[in-house]
Amino acid sequence: MSSSAPQEPRPVGGHRLWSVDEHLADVLGAVRPLEPIELQLLDAQGCVLVEDVTVPVALPPFDNSSMDGYAVRTADVQGASEEFPAVLTVIGDVAAGSGELPTVGPGEAARIMTGAPLPPGAEAVVPVEWTDGGTGGGAAAGMTPASAAPEQAGGEVRVHRAAEARAHVRARGSDVQAGDLALAAGTVLGPPQIALLAAIGRGTVRVRPRPRVVVLSTGSELVQPGEPLTAGAIYDSNSFALAAAARDAGAIAYRVGAVADDADTLRSTIEDQLIRADLLVTTGGVSVGAYDVVKEALSSVGSCGPVGSSGPDGGDGDADPDVDVDATRIDFRKLAMQPGKPQGFGTIGPDHTPLLALPGNPVSSYVSFELFVRPAIRALMGLPESEVRRPSVRAVLKADKALGSPAGRRQFLRGKYDSETGTVSPVGGSGSHLIAALAHADSLMVVPEDVTSVEPGTELEVVLLG
Question: Of 401, 297, 387, 409, nearest to 348 (Cα)?
């Protein structure tokens, strides 16, 4: 790598540049995990468990059959073969869910179904394929349904193979024992965990709920996909990308769509959305243009800087008379990164709902989401610090030429990571509007602030996106 000495953040418009790490620390420092609630099992999917769950009863709660076949005493089938089968008297059926069970005595067998309790006296289960199925013929392929031939629950069955004690029997407590730890606090509840909770009889569970994230994009030029484009208009992709990314992070996402470049309309929209938001995300309108509506609408509200922060860009503004100035603190700042230099962060409304204002270029918006919004969502979920950020690896750059990077900026380039070779290749250029390249990338290559050129063969940090 070609590099220069590390530099202190340079003043920009009277304020210094924030580093990526400073901004992320500011965001995470203001975000607290959501309060736990009791939820029904299916409603708890994707949530984080806040208590250890122990097993109240053994699983399975009784010895049961792992096969459809016959419950037998091992002595009665010892030495059985196709030439000299053991002939046993069938005393009845034992189906899954059976309560009263027949006792299997010497020379007897009971038809038994998968999952059914092992009846008293029985020591093993012989699969139906090892028998004639009570037909008096050759090896059976299966059992005749009980409703079609109830008489086959009686009569005789010929067993063609011996069985050892406990053969095809699932022992009581062989999965988990009563008092065992089923799931530890901090576990994210996916389908297997939900299944275990149901299997041990838990109808509800105490979790931190999935954060509700409201995503809205700004720009009078934005058109809903599926509608015709007019002159100068483009389709709104950011709100779809960020809502999908929020869901991928574990949140419940609400996509508001595009808001026109009008500060009053934006303020009103945000106020309407606060009732269903644990986190607000806006995209666009945070730079220095005449129509950067997010900055116009929110930078004059209250005192700058998020709760608990005395940010370097802090300053006084004219308060909107309709907004509680003590409850709203939004700070707009510039970061030493590319893409995604302009950012906004703070809290808004009476509940101090976190708001992250991202730039409007599609790649800038998405990269900013991955670096700042996703960790905020994961922190709201109550996940441990090790699971808040995307995982990263070291990989060797595979490219035809050196990659340039601006001095003093941490650059995030789209890449394709090959885990087998430990290499990463650039995808598309560095432009923050190149969304097609983003769709084919699976990682972000990180070029440090003090590096201006990265030669092929150089090892880089690579953030894995999925």
Answer: 297
State the DSSP string of 405-456.
--TT-EEEEEEEEETTTTEEEE-S-S-TT-HHHHHT--EEEEE-TTEEEE-T
Q: Would you state the structure tokens that stand for residue 96, as one six-digit string?
A: 């899954």
Looking at residue 180, what is its pLDDT? 95
Residue in the structure block whose two tokens are 């179904």: 113
Average of per-residue pLDDT across 273-291: 83
Going by C-beta distance under 8 Å and a sequence separation of 6 or more, which residues neighbour residue 189? Answer: 44, 45, 46, 47, 48, 49, 183, 197, 205, 207
Quote the percentage of the chain above a pLDDT of 70.
86
State the residue for tokens 């945000």: 270
Which residues on neighbouring strands pair with residue 279, listed in sequence order? 213
* Residue 301 DSSP label: S
Of the candidate ranges 279-288, 350-359, 404-413, the one whose mean pLDDT is the lowest: 279-288
pLDDT at 320 over 50: no
Strand partners of residue 404: 453
Distance CA 121, CA 63 (A): 12
Q: How many CB atoms lie within 10 A of CB 4?
A: 11
The tally of CA atoms less than 13 A away on the side-chain side of residue 264 is 1
Residue linked to tokens 């230099």: 341
Question: Which is nearest to 168 in space by CA: 177, 159, 176?
Answer: 159
Nearest to 119 by CA among 109, 127, 128, 134: 109
Cα 39 to chain centroid, rounded: 18
CA angle 408, 411, 412 (to 5 degrees): 165
Residue 324 · residue 303 · CB < 8 Å: no
Per-residue pLDDT tens for 67-122? 999 999 999 999 999 999 999 999 999 999 988 899 999 999 999 999 999 999 99
Residue-wise pLDDT for 131-147, tens only, equals 998 887 777 877 777 66
